[in-house]
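Journal club prep, notes for RB
We'll compare a predicted complex against what the paper describes. Inputs for the adenosine-5'-diphosphate case:
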Amino acid sequence: MPDIIQLLPDSVANQIAAGEVIQRPASVVKELVENSIDAGATAVTINIKDSGRTLIQVIDNGKGMSPTDARMSFERHATSKIREANDLFAIRTMGFRGEALASIAGVADVELRSRQHGEELGTFIHILGSLIQKQEADHCAEGTNFSVKNLFFNIPARRKFLKSNSSELKYIITEVQRVALANPELAISLYHNNSVIFNLPSENVRKRIGSLFGKGINQNLIPVDTSTSLITISGFIGQPQSARKTLGEQFFFVNGRFMKHPFFNRAIQQAYDRILPPETYPSYFLYFEVDPSTIDINIHPTKTEIKFEDERSSWHIIHASVREAMGKFNLMPSIDFDQAGSIDIPIGPLRGSHIPEPEIRINPNFNPFDSERSPDRSFSGTSSYRENQNSDNWQALYRGFEREEVVDQVQSVTQWGGEEAVQQEIRNAGLTAENHNFLQFKNKYILTPVKSGMMVIDQRRAHERILYENFLQIIENHLTISQRQLFPARLELNAVDQEILLILDEELKALGFEIRKEEGDVFYVEGVPALLSHLNATDLVEKVIEDFKNRPVDVKEELKSHLALLLSNSSAINYGVALKSEEILELFNNLFACSNPIYSPSGKSIITIVSLSDFERLVK
Ligand code: ADP
Ligand code: MG
């Protein structure tokens, strides 16, 4: 038999490698910008055409490359960043695998212009599908300029695999947000089809967060600052009131690199335990500095998953620093660390051993939100919606609810022993209304005896929950029905917003929006989703654009839950309404048919259990 094994040609090997490193236009953006940072750039400009399908250009003012280096940079495993295996344990640069440029050049049409500082002339290289087409001296600017055109031109399957323009652009924006947050001192701008999306000057972390997510976020940020011999943590966490219903502003960076870390995420989530409304997520922007030899960034080609040598200890330090930061801002009961000030954990002997969690003493009477409670909030259910109806901001529309829900949660936890008891009771088999006696109390609560004590159901919140789940169903089926506007609302949009409108075009149409461009900057909203026709059409469109700008959200999901919340809030039965016994029974049965009977859609507790012992204490 003849031998059959051969070495693959470089061009094929590069295409295969690209499959790992370069998944979509956003990966190219990430790799090129990271290279600029490694080259010491202080300013980077990114130009995107057609969500990266046509062009991805990254221009930096970094140190540039010599003609030979420029040529070498496209070879696989060609890097200036490490020389020997040992260097792998001291990585301070973003890149080190020497794969990105080779991969990109394998699957695109790439032009490189680069000039080193102080050199008279730079270099121009044109490389297509790993093959050099041209190299010559060039009068380019100092620094480096990469143009990546027609990504995946030679892999039609991959090109077809790309998502819609709006999705690919979202990926790019997300990637740029991450680098921008990791490097606030770097001036960075992003253009899409010649319209500016970001144009950020060199600034500090706090300002950068504001530039990316809206100035409003600033007053919600709590600084975190902890220094231990294992890990140094700085950055910001969001106040509980600013928690969101959707994941989004959660960022970890380690040694200047964005990372995902579900285990550490849980440390944060747990630090917020019991002070966050259910199904909301805290914002955080946390920067870790560690000795590079204690982490492994090599476990994933895109380097977003990072292994920490001593994850347990780091977990506890992260958790404790977040609690400490909240404590300083009086969001938490007083916290006592075993040692005052910084927690010092020696790296050597403790490795792998158990670190006791700093002790946290809770003052059960402390309610951090006391000052925000309105004396008569129980009856404010619908009025707070009306008051805010004209607000120019979705978030503001719901902020009132969110605050109350936090208060409620703290209350229910401290007063009644909380969710555990309720869940236990719900798990108890035989919880069918037939076995129960009901009492409507003060036309506000429904009381019924259960195994462990007395179940108290808030009638309005229960009804809100039932309606919410029904409305979600209805919206799912009907949101796309468009209602023509008799008098189309006029809308004037600046260039950026026009660009976003264009990006969202498909999604908006699918939702039932019909928007016509007049001349200049003027647009007319001729149709809106029928279910939203009672709302101000201009506000609605502006809000959708704003939401997308601040955070590349899933517009449809966001809109659906906003809408269901709005509808259920405005149509649920109010307090003070007497219910007939059949109505109570129906409410009870429908509530327990819900996917989440415990919390109202805006996060307030529906059910509390007064335990028998609490009850006995009260009546003795
Ligand atoms: P890595 O970043 O892992 O070293 P890359 O393929 O991304 O591998 O880049 C290869 C080399 O090309 C880098 O090590 C660097 O020397 C050089 N290089 C890439 N981009 C730039 C840039 N923008 N400015 C200066 N040098 C660059
Ligand atoms: Mg690189």
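Talking point for the session: The radius of gyration is 29 Å.
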